[in-house]
Amino acid sequence: MARLAEIDAALPPILVHRLTMRVIDGMHRLLAARVKGQKTIEVEFFDGTPEDAFLYAVEANISHGLPLSLADRRAAATRIIASHPQLSDRAIARAAGLGAKTVAAIRRRCSGGIPHLSARIGRDGKVRPLNSVAGRRRAAELIAERPEASLREVARLAGISPATVSDVRKRLETGQSPVTERVKSPSPSESSEETAPTAKLRADRRPPLVSADPANVLEKLLRDPSLRHKEGGRQLLRLLRQNAIAADEWDELMAAVPSHCGALVVGLARHYAEIWTDFAQLLDERVQIEGRKPDDE
To answer: Closest by alpha carbon to 166, among 185, 145, 150?
Structure first.
């Protein structure tokens, strides 16, 4: 507040919920204006429900406000889950500054008063079914009606991923059902969280995690001509090299972050981590569909 009060230039308008006249974003700007003796301050009004106003306030605080404690972020996520159960775990995680797994655990603990939905809204605003059975069947219908349609077009219309559409198309070409045995009859609990046996089966099918020295694995990828001779491969290698951070470098990196930039760096780190997680999941699904197993020698 003191730093804001020293600024001579006009500050951005604060955001106020029109219905309740509560400040959603900009409380420190309001207090700084009072310290400077101002009688008025520019305002932008938010027209929406109190629940939407709270969600916006949490998102604004995570992006540029003072860092919230872990307990505060968990409490905010709990309240958002209750008021916006249609949002996906990742969407709520981004809003509250938490991990998606943490939000999923909070959702399970307070599931008693939350309606069971068949779909959720992701971070990109798209609605996706919790159970892919309906999406797979819809994709099969679209493929039959429009065999020339691209994977992405069918995926968009069916509400599933392009990799899943590819799997459906291959199953149809071999005379199989578009719905795999694994997802044909899911239990209610599996629609939001895997059971332990299912999680183990899926883990067995996935490519092994990097158990060797990551530096050696990266060096092996850097020597692979199938990556080096393509622009996309070279870009991926550059990103992998830039993200190759050793554990003993964390202290030096954290010490370089000034306190006023801490919340911004935290938000960006979580955002980029989620992007890499999404990339890994999509690539994992494609590898499983194509039947390839990466070499971990």
So the answer is: 150
Q: Helices 89-96 & 262-290, crossing angle to 10 degrees?
A: 160
Token output for 155? 């995926």
Structural domain boundaries in the chain: 2-121, 132-185, 214-290
231-279 pLDDT per residue, tens: 888 888 888 888 777 655 677 778 788 888 888 888 888 888 878 887 8
For residues 251 and 29, what is the distance between their CA atoms, to the nearest angstrom? 33
Q: Residue 24 has which token pair?
A: 């959603």
Within 10 A of 42 (CB to CB), how many other CB atoms are there? 12
The tokens of 182 are what?
């694994």
Whole-prediction pTM: 0.45
CA angle, residues 235, 216, 211, in degrees to nearest 5: 105
Task: Give the whole-angstrom CA distance, residue 49 versus residue 19.
Answer: 8
